[in-house]
Design goal:
With about 325 residues, the chain is α/β, with parallel strands linked by helices. The chain contains eleven helices and 15 strands. The chain is globular. It starts with a strand and ends with a strand.
């Protein structure tokens, strides 16, 4: 099979197409012929040498989400059969023509989604559901703020929060990106290059914040959260060691938490997939969620796709096609 290999740590140019042996499913694994792979920020960090793959996962093949067709099943598989169309959240190895995944990591592709759109679902929806709705306990009628609303995670968070009855606020880097977020269901946006969200929204009363920025946003987040608010971190691109006013945390009874998905065990992933299928997949089938695709490139242009993601200019997902 063809696979995109990280030949050494560095820039996009270190990505090369190479031949690798086809994987074979065992136990409760399925073999997926990949039709599309989604890019994520974790792929960039891994390429740079700053995000090692978990044990048992290809260390030199990035990629956390795919869509495709089940071609073979291990002897313990009960949920799938050859020919099924699935998307999957995996811990790595997704930039390849074939991958194996345990059956509980897979979800059916909704009939109204193509392969490219379906490959944009697993990582974003898993991240948003587990962090915003499970850890953050967002409820209908609450105010929700997501930073970076134009990202793949951000566009998913806006739509899910709106779909489950929350009022959505977001920060973006341009007016154009903000208008796209409004079209997806956001109530208001702030252009962080020209406005201070902590000043503009100090009287709104935010219940849940999803933050991938970190740095000095911590204290600003604390300022806009109302009593019993929840702040959830999934990244800290602006810094991991910000200052914090603990008195405000105590007075407001705030919860500050966070998570990463890549290292979670199979039992947790299996349970998350089941909850997504029960609670989120009906929204997809009803047409209430849009996989926002910024650009789709052939797998042979993986380096170009990484360069595009490095610019930060995209709104929505950047995808690789294996067709």
């Amino acid at each position: 099979m063809k696979a995109i290999i990280i030949t050494q740590s560095g820039g996009p140019e270190v990505l090369q197409v190479q031949d690798r042996p086809d994987p074979q499913p065992t136990g409760d694994e399925v073999l997926i012929e990949v039709k599309a792979s989604g890019l994520n920020r974790a792929d960039i960090i891994q390429r740079q040498g700053n995000y090692a793959a978990p044990p048992g996962v290809p260390a030199d093949i990035p990629g956390l989400e795919v869509s495709g067709i089940v071609r073979a099943c291990g002897p313990a598989v009960t949920q799938w059969k050859p020919g099924d169309k699935v998307c999957a959240l995996i811990a790595g190895g997704g930039y390849a023509q074939y991958i194996t995944a345990r059956e509980g990591q897979c979800l059916p592709i909704p009939s109204n989604f193509g392969f490219v759109q379906a490959a944009a679902l697993p990582e974003a929806l898993s991240t948003v559901w587990s962090n915003v709705f499970q850890r953050g306990a967002l409820k209908s009628g609450e105010n929700f703020l997501v930073h970076g609303g134009n990202s793949g995670i951000g566009t998913a968070a806006i739509q899910l929060a709106k779909g489950f009855g929350a009022t959505v606020y977001t920060t973006v880097g341009s007016e154009e990106k903000g208008r796209i977020c409004l079209d997806l269901g956001a109530h208001r946006f702030i252009n962080y290059k020209t406005q201070d969200f902590a000043e503009e929204w100090k009287d709104i009363g935010i219940d849940v914040i999803l933050d991938m920025v970190g740095g000095d946003y911590l204290q600003k987040n604390i300022r806009v959260l109302r009593a019993d608010g929840r702040l959830v971190y999934i990244n800290a691109v602006a810094g991991n060691n910000p200052g914090i006013n603990l008195n405000q945390v105590m007075v407001k009874r705030l919860i500050i938490t966070g998570s990463t998905l890549r290292g979670r065990d199979y039992a947790w992933r299996n349970a998350l997939s089941a909850e997504l299928r029960a609670k989120v997949w009906p929204l997809l089938a009803a047409g209430a969620f849009k996989a926002l695709i910024y650009q789709t490139l052939p797998y042979t242009a993986a380096a170009e796709a990484h360069r595009l993601m490095d610019t930060g200019q995209h709104t929505g997902k950047i995808m690789l096609s294996w067709d």
